[in-house]
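Collaborator request, handled under Task 6.
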Amino acid sequence: MRRVVITGKGAHTSLGKDWDSIIREINAGKTGIVYMKEWDRYQELNTRLAGPILDFDIPEHWSRKQTRSMGRVSKLAVSAAETALQDAGLLGDPSIQDGNMGVAYGSSMGSTDEIVTFGNAIQNIHGASINANAYIKIMSHTAAANISVYFGLKGRVVPSSSACTSGSQSIGFAYEAIKFGKQTMMVAGGADELCVSEAMVFDNLYATSQRNDTPHLSPRPYDVQRDGLVIGEGGGALILEELSHAQARGAKIYAEIVGFGTNSDGIHVTKPETLTMERAMSLALEDANLPPSAIGYVNGHGTATEKGDIAETQATSRLFGNQVAISSLKGFFGHTLGACGTIETWLTMEMMNRDWYLPTANLDQVDGRCGELDYLMHTGRKMQHEYVMSNNFAFGGINTSLVLKRWK
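Structure tokens returned to the collaborator:
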């Protein structure tokens, strides 16, 4: 079994694309949640809240030929991957194009603009508006494929399209590809672009926040006054690398991935199950050969939905007891769906390395039905831990858990 380390990072969020920018906004009392005036035309939509990325521009060096197969989700993904490769010292290195680097990357779906184009063509029985790249932009593996093509990566491509676990599953699958000797390096992550259709889905499930007059006060993960989730958008990428390869080239190592667990509830597509959530975390600990007591902090999925928050925290409490520290980052960014697993794993790594952990935004009073845990509230906390965990849980009953180890 080979050891797997993280040597590069890149991201886009509604609060910025690096730790310093994000923390500066948070310290100024800001979140990435805004009122979406353009959604006012959808009169039956209850929520008007979202976490959009307002400052994303296509890099000037990208050519039209390179971008013609990319919708917004792929652009976010490729840009995050480019930053991560640059950070790892591998951008432009010919060694990444010899088959030793692969891609594991996910999104909930492709770009919805092109889905609308296809829908109009079908409805109007006229396909003249569809161009040659339309399908490439909507296919579920569009982000993974575009990363592979843009950087000329000839290793395995492992796309994941599992809603909220797309990003974390991709990191886990990339970790396993290296651990078991199938690849030396992997670009891993997830992305999703913002679309009103996503808000409509959760609105129809009575799961969206309707605090439209106070965007900065929602979502409220784990809080007794929560009223639902807020959709966001984002993209993230991590460079995973076999340890000896990273050391041989003198790479900066941010952390080691030591455990990954994933399973499914096998019961209901939208109702989360406490026991299988707990089992996913146990699988990650077994993979890492660690007892629950080794984990000092858990980055929770924390969507601010009633069933999700309660099931997740009860599962966490069953496994770890009431002493483990936990927080959710979705109060800052909204629920970025396919991106959340990557953004949250990245920020969990940052917090571990800085010995300072973010609280759950807008958490004032923990719902008494949630599991008994050490909830980080109001302000960040200085802590030092060798092992941390990041969890995500998705529609379809898909559960993921990742364990990171501090690099010394």
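The cover message to the collaborator said: "The radius of gyration is 20 Å. The longest strand covers residues 255-264. Please let us know whether this matches your experimental observations."
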